[in-house]
Every structure is written in structure tokens, then in C-alpha cells.
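Working notes for the structural subgroup meeting. M.R. asked for a predicted model of this chain before we commit to crystallization trials. I am recording the input and output together here so anyone reviewing the notebook later can reproduce the run.

Input as submitted:
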Amino acid sequence: MNRREVRDAWEAIAATYADRRDADGSDAALVGELAASLPPEATVLDVGCGDGARTLSNLPPGSVGLDFSREGLRLARQNVPEARLLQGDMTALPVADASVDAITAYHAVFHVHREDHPTVYCEFARVLRPGGTLLMTLPSGRFHTVREGWMGGRMLFSAPGPERTRSQLADAGFENLRTAEVSDPLGSTATFVFADRTADAGGDDDEQ
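Returned structure, recorded in C-alpha cell form:
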């Protein structure tokens, strides 16, 4: 699936995904841990915010939700009316350099082709302020597949594996990686990683 096909797929299944996922759980609790570490009046960018119920609604006031899907953003407007919302692609974030204190990316990056993940992580580093924190899902394995029938539609899942992901994050300018095993919104388990942007972040985005 190309990026347009992935976007169209999310438009079709956004409401179903919102209905089926649990808004509670230990991965949602990580948002509170992140928020507690941030300065007053911090700006957080929630990448792949979807309907906003799980992450965006628990982030500090004034946080920004970004999603590929217009339908996801429509649902987020209903659930988190005070949030700032943007439609965009995480491979080219419509956000200024060094403008956010933290990024959350829950179950989001593995819907981008794994060859483009280094570009995504460099974009995360670009928009984070030095010392800012990224909280994202760490893929459980190496895979590249289109799941037919997922949420009543079809969806791309693509990742180079957890160790390669850690390496790509380091190459993009992230350090102090630490992980947490938690329950995910569909009733399974997932691993998340916290990573801090170094002062000289912005490593190369060569695909390897």
C-alpha cells in the first residue's frame, strides 16, 4: 500500500477503530508519566492521534493532534474540542523546528513503510526541542504485510524490528532509550519506548 492508500484506508476504518479500542489501560497511563516530566505549559504533539480518546485527551491543554485521516480528526474534534488539530503525514510534519516539548506516537509508525522510518524519526527530532521526549510504540518484530479485513478494511503494517528501530532512533539523534511493557488498546500487550532528543539531533535519514 502506498501512502495515499493508507490514508484512504484510515478514512474508511477510523470510526470502527475508535469504537473497538479501549480508552483505558496501562499504555494510556504512560501519558501521565510523560506529562509529569514536562515543564509547565508544555506543548505536546500527538502523532497519529485518531479520535483522540486515548492519548490526546490526557495530554496538557494546548497539545496538538496530528493525523493522516480527516475522519480521525473529525472524531478528535468531538472528543477533545480544546486541542489544536492538524492533518498531515509523519514523514513531513507540518510543524516548525524545535517547537514541541514532547511527542507521542501510539501504534502509528508501523503504518508507514519501514524504509521510511528513518525519515519519520528525523522529523520527530527536528520538531522536538533539545532534551524533548518521544514516547512511541516499539515494534515487536520485523514485518511488512497488508492485513486484509483488519477493522473491516485493510491496513499496512511494516517495521524493521525492535533492535533496528532502536538503532534508527539513535541515528536520528535520540538517547536515553527506556522501555515499558503495557496493555494496548485492543486488549493485547505492547512495548513502548521513551527517548530523549539530544542537543545535536538530526542525524541522516539514509535507508538501511
